[in-house]
Design brief:
The chain is mainly alpha-helical. It is built from 12 helices and no strands.
């Protein structure tokens, strides 16, 4: 076990040494995705915003009182949907990072393990715009910036940890089977509905709520709301924090091990 942990640490350390290349590739990836056409970035924003507006129009009457403090539903919805959209984008991009960059994989001197990380950082640039939108809506609704907003980087780190482990795992397996795409698609679709994005975790009976937190994104989504709306620190519920961190680091370790084991065979398959 100690050898696995040591090897994983060296694996991550080697990626850190490539940080300059990672950021350069992430900027280039962002430009190719969203700045390659006149309306590229606008379309990237328009699709999720249209979905949010649609959900808001459909449920605003039934959910106009979210919680006992009557939180504006649009703020509740956007602060929950933004982290999920970022997570889903990172998972999908990380899964396809290796197969979509075959030309880089076959280069002997290229560190393939940075590719899922490149997609995560590339998606982060768009997420920054959504964070500004959340902040604008919060201020408009009377939820002004507080010291609790300073904990937002922690929740961004949480998403980073989950998606990096998933990116390495699914990205490596995807090289050998297209079925991984279908599996991830089903999981993301199911995960969206079982994550309290437009409904409340408190609506689940307390005896069953422990099963809800098997989904790590529940902790992150509620963390965004605790940051912008409810003003709670990330460490106030230590049990949920500990459960999330254990899950995140275990999956990160699994992702590293699987990627290292399968990486030597990528060029043969691709």
């Amino acid at each position: 076990m100690s050898a696995i942990i040591k090897g994983s640490f060296e694996f991550i350390l080697n990626i850190y040494r490539e940080r300059t290349l990672v950021f350069a590739l992430s900027v280039d990836d962002f430009r190719q995705q969203y700045l390659g056409s006149y309306l590229g970035l606008l379309w990237a924003l328009f699709r999720p915003l249209l979905f949010v507006v649609t959900i808001w129009l459909v449920f605003s009457v039934g959910f106009k009182r979210v919680g006992s403090d009557r939180v504006p539903f649009i703020l509740y919805l956007v602060s929950g949907y933004a982290p999920w959209a970022y997570f889903a984008d990172c998972v999908t991009g990380g899964m396809n990072a290796v197969v979509n960059n075959r030309h880089l994989v076959k280069k002997v001197d290229f560190r393939v393990s940075i590719l899922p990380l490149v997609k995560i950082i590339s998606s982060f640039y768009l997420h920054l715009i959504f964070l500004l939108i959340i902040a604008a809506i919060a201020i408009y609704k009377g939820y002004y910036p507080t010291v609790y907003w300073l904990q937002l980087p922690f929740y961004l780190l949480c998403i980073f940890l989950i998606t990096l482990g998933l990116g390495w795992f699914t990205g490596a397996v995807r090289v050998f089977t297209k079925d991984m795409s279908q599996v991830v698609s089903v999981i993301l679709q199911t995960g969206f509905w079982v994550t309290p994005i437009f409904w409340q975790a408190s609506s689940v009976p307390e005896k069953y709520r422990v099963f809800l937190y098997i989904n790590p994104m529940v902790y992150v989504v509620e963390g965004y709301r605790n940051t912008f709306i409810y003003h709670k620190w990330f460490f106030e519920d230590f049990r949920q924090l500990a459960f999330f961190l254990v899950f995140a680091f275990v999956f990160l370790l699994v992702g590293v091990v699987v990627f290292k084991k399968l990486r030597p065979h990528f060029a043969e398959v691709l």
